[in-house]
Amino acid sequence: MKNIKICKKECDPDPARRENKQRHGRSSFWMHDPDLIFSELKLKAGDYFLDMGCGPGDYSIWASKIVGNSGMVYALEKWQDLIDDLTEKVDLKEFTNIVGIVSDITKPLSIEESCIDVYFISTVLHSLDLAKDSNMIFNEVHRVLKPDGRLAIIECKKEEMSFGPPLHMRLSPEELENIITKYGFEKIDLTDLGYNYMIQFRKN
Questions:
Q1: Coil, helix or strand for 164?
Q2: 99 with 73: CB under 8 angstroms?
Q3: pLDDT for 124-158, tens place per residue?
Q4: Phi, psi angle pair for 127, to nearest 5°
Q5: Structural domain 2-203, CATH architecture
Q6: What is 81-146 written as a DSSP string?
Q7: Residue 85 and residue 61: Cα distance in Å, rounded?
Q8: Domain map of the chain by residue range?
Q9: What pTM did the predictor assign?
Q10: I need a surface site. Which of 12, 193, 203, 204 has the fewest CB within 10 A?
C-alpha cells in the first residue's frame, strides 16, 4: 500500500503544486476540477458517501458540504496518522457528518450492508494486486452499496508520463471494466480529467 503515497504525491505534473500537496498531505484532489468531479458524481443532500483511501480527506470534506447534515461521509484510510489528522481537522471545522475509519480496502469493511450511495476510490487501485484482491474489494463494494448505488474510480491514464506510476502499474478504463463487471456491476460513465480519468459503475 506504500505505493499509494507515491502516486498521490507524484501524479501531478506541476512541481510547485506537487510540493504544496506534499507539505500538507497525500492527495490527488488538486490535480482536478472538484466541481467537475462532483457534478459527475451527482451527489445530493442526504446521500451517504464512502471515500476509500481518503488520504488527508480533501474529497471527503468537499462531499460533506454537499450531502449536508442529513447525509454522511465515511472517510476510510489504512494509515492511522492520516485518520488522526483528518479527525482533528473535522473537529476544528465542526463538521458533524464525517466519520474517519482506519480500514484496509483488501479486508472486510466495518460498514453496514446497502447503505452507501457513492463508493469513491481515487488513485488507489493501481497500487494493489487486483488478481489477488479483487474478490474481496469488489464484493465488499457491492455489499455496502445501495441497490441504486454507484462506484466511482479515479485512476492515472495508461500512458507514458514523466511523473506518476510506471506504465506497467497503470490501469486503463477497459481493464477496470473487465475486472469489475464480473462482480455484478455495469459501466455507466467515463470522464476525462486530463492526466487521469474517472469511471463509474452501478449494480446491474
A1: coil
A2: yes
A3: 999 999 999 999 999 999 999 999 999 999 999 99
A4: -90, 0
A5: 3-Layer(aba) Sandwich (3.40)
A6: HHHHHHHHHHHHHT-SSEEEEE--TTS--SS-TT-EEEEEEES-GGGS-HHHHHHHHHHHHHHHEE
A7: 13
A8: 2-203
A9: 0.87
A10: 204
